[in-house]
Amino acid sequence: MTTPRRALVVVDVQQEYFDGPLEIQYPPRGQSLANIVAAVDVAAAHDVPVVIVQHRMPDDAPIFVEGTPGWSLHPDLEARVDSSCKRVHKQYGSVFAGTDLAEWLRARDVDTITIVGYMTNNCDLATAVEAEGLGFAAEILSDATGSIHLANEAGQVSAQSLHTTLMVLLQSNFAAVTTATQWAQAVQSGTSLPKNNLIESAVQGRSATALV
Fold this sequence. Notes:
There is one protein chain. The chain has seven helices and eight strands. It is an alpha/beta fold. The chain has one domain (6-210): 3-Layer(aba) Sandwich (Rossmann fold). The mean pLDDT is 95. The longest helix is centred in the first third of the chain and has 17 residues, at 29-45. The chain is globular, with a radius of gyration of 17 Å.
């Protein structure tokens, strides 16, 4: 198995997710933030390219308006951003839509993106799904991402249930799901991370359901 050529994609670690209606609920914000920062440090120590993404909305939007406090990166992350980082401003869920990121990654022979940041249930999911079509393998760190409680006309779901469900979904096809610690070990050893597939996940799911 060849050594992955990774880039760490840090998605929208902005103040909007630490205060207000989009406040991350699971895993705990402090825990996920600490793991995000640790992943950036690991990447820097092992020459893994780092991409810093910020979501940007029109000036009349209620959130993510450039220049407002909520648009800013969390200070713990901002302190680690330097000129070697690729900075991306996006307006859609996926970090690839409407940006030059795919071309930037290909120019550096990156074949695997590692996703950290927010939110699991929106931009992380969209990024992992689009990565497949663009030819990039994806990894996602379950404890360096986060979800929110949701409720609408279709029903309601807690952040923990949503996050856990999406990790199972992603591991079944779109991304290798791991922890920040396990990822750091894989980076240090230059090894790939295991990803399941839809058929195996379906068979295991049917077996697990039969035992309930």
